[in-house]
Amino acid sequence: MLPASDPVRLSLLRISAEETRLGEEYLESQHDRSPTVAANNYIADDDWDANFEVGLGSFSTALRRRRRAEIGRVR
User: Fold this and answer.
1) What's the pLDDT at 1?
2) Which helix (H) or strand (E) holds 9?
3) Residue 38 near residue 27 (C-beta atoms within 8 A)
4) Pick from 43, 45, 57: which is nearest to 1 by CA?
5) Residue 27 CB-density burial (10 A; 0-12 exposed, 13-18 middle, 19+ buried)
6) Using CA atoms, how far apart are residues 8 and 3, in angstroms rounded to an integer?
7) Which pLDDT value is given to residue 4?
8) Using an 8 Å Cβ cutoff, are 46 and 38 in contact?
């Protein structure tokens, strides 16, 4: 893992308070299409790098579990 001070790792995305408010309103209006996103208010969380790492970790864990299950079925 790269240190937080590493410029390669730091997100360049910056969202203003107004953009955040508009995004929250939009997500709420789309709650039926994206319930997890709307319920967790991800747009208001500005730690994009940490959120990416958490999401990537969850994704890779799910892939490993699926792979283990597939290997178990083959034998």
Assistant:
1) 47
2) none
3) yes
4) 57
5) buried
6) 10
7) 54
8) no
> CA 55, CA 35: separation in Å to the nearest integer?
16
At residue 55, what is the residue type? G
Q: Which two tokens stand for residue 11?
A: 């997100």
pLDDT, tens only, 11-50: 677 788 898 899 889 988 988 988 887 787 777 777 778 8
Domain residue limits, the chain: 15-44, 46-75
Amino acid letter at 25? E
Q: How far apart are CA 61 and CA 26, in angstroms?
A: 31
Residue type, 29: S
